Amino acid sequence: MTTTVYAQEENTDYELKADEKFGxxxxxxxxxxxxxxxxxxxxxxxxxxxxxxxxIAVADIDKSKKKxxxxxxxxxxxKEYVAYDDSNVERHFEVVKYTNTKxxxxxxxxxxxxxxxAFNNLTKSNQFAEVVTDGKIxxxxxxxxxxxxxxxxxxxxxxDKETERMRKILLLFILKKEVx
Length: 180
Known about the structure:
The chain has about 180 residues and is α+β, with helices and mostly antiparallel strands. It has helices spanning about 50, 100-105, 110-120, 155-170; strands at about 5-10, 10-15, 20-25, 30-40, 50-55, 70-75, 80-85, 90-95, 125-135, 135-140, 170-175. It has a 9-stranded antiparallel beta sheet with strand order 6-5-4-3-7-8-9-10-11. The protein has a two-stranded antiparallel ribbon with strand order 1-2. The N and C termini lie far apart (about 45 Å). Mean pLDDT is about 80; it is low at about 10.
């Protein structure tokens, strides 16, 4: 399914790609910058939006070009990024400090493949988590990170099965807001 949205100014159009959404980022100083966010995650790799985002500020859009130069931003650059979905609902991705020890120590593959999966889950302490509920308590959605390498058909089969499991297992965690 392809959705076409146009940003118009002075009779020059820029057509959004399917994975590009209007939105904004909040930088480390708290400044809101509006622009276009590229969401790279899909059903096959839902964890991708947790690592980094691609963003272009409105001021940097060259409307005469079909392809824009997006900047890659990660949890060291931002406090949050927001993308409007197809129903014009804001999807918030906030930086949270979280280490996935469950997936880090739970691996079906051994050797280098298992070590890479453990490393990916145990070293990702600051990452973007999608906000599911925001109120007196805040609920975030996260996925574990699968291995990025497998050697030998046996390891490949185990890694594929484990990656499929990880697509289906959603981690929800809750932070209680402090009341002043």
